[in-house]
Specification:
Helices cover 40% and strands 20% of the residues. The protein has 264 residues and is α+β, with helices and mostly antiparallel strands. The strands form 4 sheets. A 4-stranded antiparallel β-sheet has the order 2-6-4-5. The chain has a 3-stranded antiparallel β-sheet with strand order 1-7-3. Helix 1 runs antiparallel to helix 4, helix 4 runs antiparallel to helix 9 and helix 5 packs antiparallel against helix 8. 41% of the residues are buried.
């Protein structure tokens, strides 16, 4: 389950949906956007900082994280080509509620918050799309909180790998155990133990700083219920006629792309 089939360019799905449903709105909006490149580890928003723009990612992946008093950060939600970050501007937030960090570098578009609000007036196609996406993101954050409370670490890690796999066009995720542990607020040893168990079952292959998805169905069996719930929620909210703004079927396993995440 990836956003683009192998060989296709990843495209932001919210912008694609707007183009497919209201091309005039899409063209006016795109005329105001600026193409940007996201750097690994770049902080797009700080919690409590100004929310002056929004970002629509193509092939970049961002993590929305809550920062604790001791500096630890816990991932609350993930956004890639299926969505956007900075949607608080749509809700008239003046400041960002969470830190937003680029965990996979790539490209996308930046749009001023005021321009977004002007375009997303009540009754517009963009307004309807952003209402659905906001509902999806709130649902994702709720699931993450529940998942952290009741599901075991191994299942949570498998779910994280699936959600990241959905947002790239290959099967190799370059991520350190330390980085993954910091996002999930678990011990680094727990990540290493889970990775080794998944390797033994044939679900993934492990190398230093790299996890390659080999058997996605096996990985899905290891994940918690939150993964299927998230997938179903997104596709339910964005299904429109014959098309869905969700994730098509996965490409064949074993293809490697360079996906780099920060961490030690």
């Amino acid at each position: 389950m990836t956003i683009a089939m192998m060989g296709e360019r990843l495209e932001n799905q919210l912008l694609r949906l707007l183009r497919d449903t209201a091309v005039d709105e899409y063209e006016r909006l795109r005329a105001q956007t600026e193409a940007v490149r996201f750097a690994q580890g770049e902080v797009l928003f700080e919690a409590g900082g100004p929310a002056s723009c929004v970002y629509f990612q193509d092939d970049a992946i961002t993590a929305l994280v809550h920062v604790l008093a001791d500096g630890r950060q816990v991932q609350v939600a993930t956004a890639g080509a299926e969505g956007m970050v900075g949607f608080g501007a749509f809700l008239d937030f003046e400041t960002a509620p969470l830190r937003c960090v680029v965990k996979v570098p790539g490209t996308g578009y930046r749009l001023g918050a005021a321009a977004l609000r002007d375009a997303a007036t009540s009754g517009s196609a963009l307004h309807a799309i952003l209402q659905r996406y906001t509902q999806y993101m709130f649902g994702q954050a709720t699931r993450v909180a529940a998942c952290a409370s009741v599901h075991d670490v191994g299942a949570r890690i498998a779910t994280w790998l699936l959600m990241t796999h959905d947002r790239v066009d290959g099967d190799c995720i370059r991520v350190t155990h330390g980085f993954l542990a910091s996002l999930l607020a678990v011990r680094r040893a727990s990540v290493s133990e889970t990775a080794e168990e998944l390797r033994r079952t044939g679900a993934i292959d492990c190398a230093r700083g790299r996890l390659t998805i080999l058997d996605r169905p096996q990985l899905e069996r290891a994940a918690c219920e939150c993964y299927d719930s998230e997938r179903a929620d997104y596709e339910r909210l964005f299904r429109s006629g014959r098309a869905t703004c969700g994730f098509p079927a996965a490409a064949a396993p074993g293809t490697i792309v360079n996906i780099v995440a920060t961490g030690t």
